[in-house]
Amino acid sequence: METAWEIARSDGLAALTLRAVAERIGMRSPSLYSHFDSKNAIYDAMFAEGWADLRSLTDRTLRRASVPRRMLLQLAELFFDFATDDLARYQLMNQRTIPDFQPSEQGYAESLAAYDGMRSWLRDAGVTHATDLDLWTALLGGFVDQQLANDPGGDRWRRQLVRLVDMYCTEVGVPGPQLRRTR
Amino acid sequence: METAWEIARSDGLAALTLRAVAERIGMRSPSLYSHFDSKNAIYDAMFAEGWADLRSLTDRTLRRASVPRRMLLQLAELFFDFATDDLARYQLMNQRTIPDFQPSEQGYAESLAAYDGMRSWLRDAGVTHATDLDLWTALLGGFVDQQLANDPGGDRWRRQLVRLVDMYCTEVGVPGPQLRRTR
DNA sequence: GTCTATATTCTGATAGAC
DNA sequence: GTCTATCAGAATATAGAC
């Protein structure tokens, strides 16, 4: 798994091959079939691991009962940094990059669990409407996408996260003063 | 080109092969090299065509001098519908799905021209700050991504576009009354 | 411009010995 | 669990006849 992630990160998600994985760990490709049923099974394990990592990171990092707007900003920064940290992982988790790959029931469940986790944090901030949740995911995803596509390694969108959270909070009615003073 | 688009749409962008293209039009794959230098040259032509189509569609459809908020809504709907109409096209134009592909200078110029077009429409609405433009692209892209990934063919995010435009206009200071009355 | 033929390389996957 | 050997097929690309 480690090696698979390394290859996906450096050469692209679609460039992942069994031979490349096996070679790097000093094995032959058929031996991998003792551990995974197919290549897609590797993608699937990576998919599940990505979502599990995001969830555990969130649980370890965020603190409840802080000022709602501050908490949402932390949530946004956490997700943004996690996502932009690894393009291949983000593509696997959130975009349909690999034509044949579809997550298994387990993998899908992992992604739902992560989504539920995020939902509970938003609930703590008083956000419960389904449309408000959809708005949140779209805003965050959009920022991540632009950062990855148009300024990889930079902070052109990352530095507007505070503004984004303020705008969102105002829109959905999260109380509290603005986090940011000027444009 | 037509056939290449068809294959990319139905089987995925990465599933595009010279053989498949040639077969569908009653040719042999080597013959394609009389028209394109390489496979990536086909991707490149598709990339440029996608951006050119978006630009010409925008120029043909939008009207200047309407109410700023209305015009921005039209711009948003136009882009959203164009993008969600064809996942493969969107991936090619906006995401790094094909590991080896990088747009040529011409293709890149086409994308810049389309971006300039969008910028001029936003300028007409009084939006000029670079950060405000970045915010616009991120918001729109995020909506498109969520629609494609989580509700393909549906309208779960599409129907929140009015809300998005209102929120954006309020944030960046586009004058005029709200387009929408309730959540 | 299109064809046949072919080079070269890579792919995921299986059979079966150890 | 790991190996060798191999399958069956696919991929992009080139050479050269017509």
Mean pLDDT score of chain A, rounded? 96
Alpha-beta content class of chain A: mainly alpha
N- to C-terminal distance of chain A: 43 Å
Strand content of chain A: under 5%
Write down the secondary-structure element order of chain A: HHHHHHHH
- Residue runs with pLDDT of under 50 for 5 or more positions of chain A: none
Number of helices of chain A: 8
Characterization of the model:
- Two copies of one chain form a homodimer.
- By secondary structure, chain A is mainly alpha-helical.
- Chain A has a domain at 47-172: Tetracycline Repressor, domain 2 (Orthogonal Bundle), CATH 1.10.357.
- Chain A contains eight helices and no strands.
- The first copy, chain A, has helices at residues 2-11, 18-24, 39-61, 68-84, 87-94, 105-124, 130-150, 161-172.
- The longest helix of chain A is centred in the N-terminal third of the chain and has 23 residues, at 39-61.
- Chain A is elongated and about 60 Å long.
- The N and C termini of chain A lie far apart (43 Å).
- Chain A binds a DNA duplex (18 and 18 nucleotides) through loops.
